[in-house]
Specification:
8-stranded antiparallel sheet; 6-stranded antiparallel sheet; Glutamine Phosphoribosylpyrophosphate, subunit 1, domain 1; 23% strand; binds 2-deoxy-2-amino glucitol-6-phosphate
Length: 610
């Protein structure tokens, strides 16, 4: 899990450009970073353990300049985060350097083979083998050498390669890891994602699997592994650079929480047609006739996206009356699941690059299922490979803890469920109209939920020293309890569990005492009385009760230590609003505990390896 960048420019600007690009990729990994700069026929490399700031500081002490370079920010998979294991890696001659994201599964065999031929390895990484392979295949043409080398690789990779004898040239290639080429004026760039090149250009080309890019200052050539030239069309990115930066907030996470009203509007934009009583999802690209015939839906996802999948199960079953299974992609891919031809699989992923989700999706496609990707990143693997997509329009999410992307997934999945319901005749045009009217109010409701921020902060400060937290919810808000717990544990490192409230008495009730804060989602619903009973059960066992309640519910104060009010909502829409105070709660607890909110330890934004 790493970020890679490269540039071919004029003058001596490569180090400055690469550092600024790497700053936008720190979310992909941040245990070490490195640069390789080519100038005057020599490649100079610099590598530092820890965050990018360490590399930037040591670069400040040196006068390194060059027009061409590669950079890397690492999240260790093979080999500890040390200077020797940091990228870029060199071949034995020192003339070739490589940066790599991914995992080379057959690196041990390749290393043994190369050792036999006299290659000496400096690091414990799988990546170094690529530099040696390229060197052993180099016969004057760097692109050919890269092509021959990647034929030998098993696993996943995005790479950037440079040769000291080939000025103003970098070669990039990928398989199952993201890689884009940015097209500038008299300069071209390479990066793991578009945010890294956005201050240079908004024109990018997404490389396909096993495509090789030969990048010079004025030209880009792409070819397939077979040697056939690829006729590419650049994509123009409409995200502004400011969108990808912190926008004045202390952390990306807080900025992204505050963007949610806009994100909800953007995800709804152009999709509600009250006149016709229809939901319009053009990129879905699956015929209504096929949607009509679906007998079962399988949802696959990881982490927060898996929680969105559980909300979607509730939506699809209620609105379209189709049975739904929700699986962790990492589990499904190693089971022998019943995936039938003609079944519908929904792959949910913010990044569109999560290795397990991609693998499970490919399994489903092979079994003859139709795959719909619910995704936030245009050009990502899931978007490219799915039969149809529903883009979530959350914009770039930089904080490792997913917030606005989750909310946008819920909105997209609700739209899809409504469409399914209509196509199958479960919902009438009139029903769709009513849902559209409610959905149009949703951005305001999310905005109103954000008004609780100051109060949520006070509540967070009261419980900042707790060792454990329990989150409970029921029905469509049970997955929101899971999400609240995940958010808190990933950024504050406090142990937290989410539970369906009705399950308390089957075990977790034994944990309750005055030291355990319990966050209960207790907003208006058809099972409101049931969850109030669960809150009372916990309260009489001395647990500290933090209750999320609907505005106007004064009675709830009798069973709560702290109440956080959210706007009154239709039950189906309530998860989208209820998650907001839970995101804020975890944010303020983590901030008060001095945690690195945007880049929590051991986590990476995009899990592109198994
Ligand atoms: C969310 O806060 C997490 N960091 C993580 O669980 C994430 O949702 C998961 O890795 C899936 O990512 P994806 O949506 O990009 O596939």
């Amino acid at each position: 899990m790493c970020g890679i960048v490269g540039c071919v420019t004029a003058g001596d600007e490569a180090p400055r450009i690469l550092i600024s690009s790497l700053k936008r990729l720190e979310y992909r990994g941040y245990d070490s970073a490195g640069l390789a700069i080519l100038g005057d026929g020599e490649i100079e490399t610099m590598r530092e353990v820890g965050k990018l700031a360490n590399l930037e500081n040591s670069l400040g002490d040196k006068s390194i300049g060059g027009s061409t370079g590669l950079g890397h920010t690492r999240w260790a998979t093979h080999g500890r985060p040390t200077e020797v294991n940091a990228h870029p890696h060199r071949d034995g001659s020192g003339r070739i350097v490589v940066v790599h994201n991914g995992i080379i599964e057959n690196y041990r065999e390749l290393r043994a083979e190369l050792r036999e031929k006299g290659h000496v390895f400096a690091s414990d990484t799988d990546s170094e083998v690529i530099a040696h392979l390229v060197q052993s295949n180099f016969d004057g043409d760097l692109t050919d050498a890269v092509a021959q080398s990647i034929r030998r690789l098993k696993g996943a990779y995005a790479i950037g390669v440079m040769h000291a004898d080939r000025p103003e040239l970098i070669v990039g290639a990928r398989k199952d890891c993201p890689l884009v080429v940015g097209l500038g004026e008299g300069a071209n760039f390479l990066a793991s994602d578009v945010t890294a090149v956005m201050d240079q250009t908004n024109r990018v080309v997404y490389l396909g699997d096993e495509e090789i890019a030969t990048i010079r200052r004025e030209t880009l050539e792409i070819r397939k592994l077979s040697g056939e030239a690829v006729d590419y069309t650049p994509t123009t990115i409409s995200w502004s650079l400011a969108q990808a930066e912190r926008g004045g907030y202390p952390h990306f996470m807080l900025k992204e929480i505050h963007e949610q009203p806009t994100v909800v509007s953007d995800t709804l934009l152009g999709r509600l047609d009250e006149d016709k009583g229809e939901i319009r999802l053009e990129e879905l690209a699956i015929d209504d006739e096929i949607l009509k015939g679906i007998k079962r839906v399988n949802i696959i996802a990881c982490g927060t996206s898996w929680h969105a999948g559980h909300v979607a199960k509730f939506y699809i079953e209620q609105l379209a009356r189709i049975p739904v299974d929700v699986d962790y992609a990492s589990e499904l891919r190693y089971r022998d699941p019943v995936l039938e031809e003609g079944g519908l699989v929904i792959a949910i992923s913010q990044s569109g690059e999560t290795a397990d989700t991609i693998a499970a999706m490919r399994m489903a496609a092979k079994a003859g299922c139709k795959v719909v990707g619910v995704c936030n990143v245009i050009g990502s693997t899931i978007v490219r490979e799915a039969d149809g997509t529903i883009m979530t329009h959350a914009g770039p999410e930089i904080g490792v803890a997913s917030t606005k992307a989750f909310v946008s997934q819920l909105v997209a999945l609700l739209l899809f469920s409504l469409k399914l319901g209509r196509v199958r005749g479960v919902l009438s045009e009139g029903d769709i109209r009513k849902h559209c009217q409610r959905l149009r109010q949703l951005p305001h409701a999310v905005e109103a939920a954000l008004q609780s921020e100051a109060h949520v902060r006070e509540v967070a400060l009261k419980y900042v020293s707790a060792q454990d937290f329990l989150f409970i919810g029921r029905g469509v808000n049970y997955p929101i309890a899971l999400e609240g717990a995940l958010k808190l544990k990933e950024i504050s490192y406090i142990h937290a569990e989410g539970y369906p409230a009705g399950e308390l008495k089957h075990g977790p009730i034994a944990l309750l005492d005055e030291k355990l804060p319990v966050v209960a989602i207790c907003t208006e619903s058809t099972i409101y009385d049931k969850i109030v009973t669960n809150v009372e059960e916990a309260r009489v066992r001395d647990a500290k009760m933090i209750v999320i309640a609907s505005a106007g519910d004064d009675a709830i104060q009798e069973v709560a230590d702290d109440v956080i009010y959210v706007p009154r909502m239709d039950e189906l829409l309530s998860p989208i609003v209820n998650v907001v105070p839970l995101q804020l709660l975890s944010y303020f607890v983590a901030r008060e505990r001095g945690c690195d909110v945007d880049q929590p330890r051991n986590l990476a934004k995009s899990v592109t390896v198994e």
